[in-house]
Design goal:
Distance between the termini: 39 Å
Strand content: 35-45%
Radius of gyration: 30 Å
Number of helices: 2
Number of strands: 11
Strand order of the largest sheet: 6-7-8-11-10-9
Shape: rod-shaped
Largest sheet: 6 strands, antiparallel, barrel
Order of helices and strands: HEEEEEHEEEEEE
């Protein structure tokens, strides 16, 4: 899902950039005049330009992306869409808001980051699933113990698992949306241990609701 959203956002941003380039290549060019100019700290940089199209004078706002300086009354070359004369840019300004494009790229980057995290999570759960199929589930009990605060942020809790058969195992939860911190009141609760090593899973009978709740874990060191 995240990959589809990031791809859609990237296509949309590239489509806007391509649209501005297409207008420059195929639009009608006419002389224009700068009517007013806005620069920071007023907000987005833009110029209002007046020009003739279809026998009438139009005034439209063009967002600025270049470093060029403008003054009212300055002559510019306006490029407009013959099918929609209000869709306009100049030969020097693409009409795209720097702030708008900046936020769009940030949004695409964040969604792409979520896609990478989700993909890594999917790979991890697939690996744990294969490990559980090999080992099966060991019934037992588990106790969630919060890790001591080290000043470097919140550390994942430990999970002390006691299978009904075999030795007790000390694991550590893996940072995940299926975290175990909210289970810190769990002491010797029914649970199942599956997988091995860095592909371990603790399955609790209940999580936030009535459904079983799986916590990814690794064997704790030290």
């Amino acid at each position: 899902m995240w990959c589809l959203v990031s791809a859609g956002g990237l296509i949309a941003v590239l489509g806007v950039l391509h649209s501005a380039d297409t207008l420059l290549a195929t639009g009608t060019r006419v002389p224009g005049t700068v009517v007013s100019v806005a620069t920071p700290p007023k907000g987005t940089r833009w110029i209002d330009v007046s020009y003739r199209a279809d026998g009438r004078t139009l005034t439209e706002r063009v967002d600025r992306s270049s470093t060029a300086a403008y003054t009212p009354g300055e002559r510019v070359t306006v490029v407009f869409d013959p099918a929609d004369p209000a869709r306009v840019r100049t030969t020097a300004e693409d009409g795209l808001s720097e702030n708008g494009l900046g936020f769009a790229w940030i949004g695409v980057g964040l969604v792409l980051l979520c896609s990478l995290v989700a993909a890594a999570g999917a790979v991890g759960w697939s690996r744990r699933s294969r490990a559980v199929r090999r080992t099966g589930w060991q019934e037992g009990t588990a106790t969630v113990v919060l890790a001591p605060f080290t000043g470097r942020g919140v550390n994942p809790p430990y999970l002390h698992v006691r299978p009904l058969s075999g030795e007790a195992v000390r694991l550590r939860a893996v940072p995940s949306t299926h975290g175990a911190r909210f289970l810190r009141t769990y002491t010797d609760r029914p649970a199942w241990l599956g997988g091995t090593g860095s592909a371990s899973v603790i399955l609790f009978r209940h999580g936030c609701g009535e459904a079983p709740y799986a916590v990814p874990a690794v064997v704790a060191r030290g």
